[in-house]
Inverse folding.
């Protein structure tokens, strides 16, 4: 079962990590199995499913949830989802 994170992630930092890894948002969308349009919509909303977040974290070398959610409360809330 996939859980959708209801708190917005820090898409500014996510975009930065995508660029740092020499990737495009289109490439990340493809790796996640979604269209570029869907990825852009999710980036705009700042909401992804837990399986998508997990895949992006692995792809972009993100080990700390604070990178995506920023606050300790949000980290505890979403850690169980991943």
């Amino acid at each position: 079962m996939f859980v959708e994170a209801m708190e917005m992630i820090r898409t500014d930092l996510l975009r930065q990590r995508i660029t740092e890894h020499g990737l495009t948002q289109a490439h990340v969308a493809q790796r996640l199995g979604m269209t570029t349009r869907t990825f852009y919509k999710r980036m705009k909303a700042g909401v992804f499913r837990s399986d998508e977040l997990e895949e992006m974290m692995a792809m972009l070398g993100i080990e700390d949830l604070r990178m995506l959610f920023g606050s300790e409360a949000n980290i505890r809330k979403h850690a169980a989802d991943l």
About this structure: Residues 56 and 62 are 8 Å apart (CA to CA). Confidence is low (pLDDT under 50) at residues 1-6.
